[in-house]
Specification:
The protein is mainly alpha-helical. The protein is about 50% helix and about 5% strand. The chain has 13 helices and two strands; from the N terminus they run ααααααααββααααα. The chain has a two-stranded antiparallel sheet. β1 and β2 form a beta hairpin. The longest helix is centred in the last third of the chain and has 16 residues. The chain is extended, with a radius of gyration of 26 Å. The two termini are about 45 Å apart.
């Protein structure tokens, strides 16, 4: 993609074509901190209802120096007014089964993935800053695997200064000294840590939205998602049957 074509996309971001997305992606790969290219690529994915949008939203946030600017961009009126291409059906989970987002794997029409509209671009509203922050959180932490050293720890020598000069002390000597002293380790505060996210949401109903519930589904935090939809069914009793279907679909995912 040359500069002329990029400027053309920049002046009309709502008309990004599928082949232009590949060009923008190549620019991002070569210049990962080029925020304008990230934003345009993200816009193109959303307009085409691509299942890749949600993951790229996190990636764009990682390379954005000020995430508030990104949030303002994805919740602006200009970001939402562009219709999808004619061959893409906009999702409407309440009325009928939706067509899978563009480029998504084939799934059965009666599957829980379709019921929950998994993979469809998350649509944050301007007042949903909490939901946006939750989406940017890691869904899980991977353990750090450290390579074991080939060096025999008992042969590692350190030097300790005392009144008589330097004394050779091995790691095994240090371990023996530690055992002899029998030091007490105070319990860590992390042991009593609990995730108070849902408690905070329960206390403040304005934080609970359908977007947040779907954030938890996308992150595979199914228990939180069930709690979220349960709260929403109490908050909006007129949609309780819809939320019940969502909860049933989540439970099917848990059984897989």
């Amino acid at each position: 993609m040359n500069l002329i074509e990029f400027n053309k996309i920049l002046s009309g971001p709502g008309q990004i074509k599928k082949e232009q997305l590949s060009g923008l992606y190549n620019i991002i790969e070569e210049y990962p901190y080029f925020q304008a290219a990230h934003f345009l690529h993200l816009n193109g994915l959303k307009n085409r209802h691509s299942f890749k949008y949600n993951d790229f939203l996190k990636k764009t946030a990682a390379y954005t120096t000020d995430r508030s600017v990104l949030f303002d961009y994805i919740t602006s009126d200009d970001y939402d007014i562009h219709p999808a291409p004619a061959d893409i059906i906009a999702p409407d989970t309440e009325k009928k089964p939706v067509k899978a987002p563009e480029d998504s794997p084939e799934i059965k029409s009666d599957s829980p993935e379709v019921t929950l509209n998994i993979g469809a671009p998350l649509k944050f509203k301007r007042e949903e800053t909490f939901s946006f922050r939750e989406w940017l959180q890691l869904s899980k932490f991977e353990p750090i695997v450290r390579k074991s050293s080939k060096t025999d720890s008992s042969q590692i020598i350190v030097q300790k200064n005392d009144d008589k000069g330097f004394k050779r002390v091995t790691d095994m000597d240090l371990i023996d000294q530690f055992i002899t002293k029998n030091p007490k380790i105070s319990p860590s505060l992390l042991e009593t840590y609990t995730d108070a996210t849902m408690d905070s949401i329960t206390e403040n109903d304005s934080l609970m939205t359908e977007t947040l519930a779907h954030v938890y589904v996308e992150q595979k935090k199914y228990e939180k998602a069930i709690t979220a939809f349960t709260i929403l069914s109490l908050k909006y009793p007129e949609k309780s049957s819809f939320f019940a279907l969502q909860i049933e679909a989540i439970k099917k995912l848990q059984e897989k």
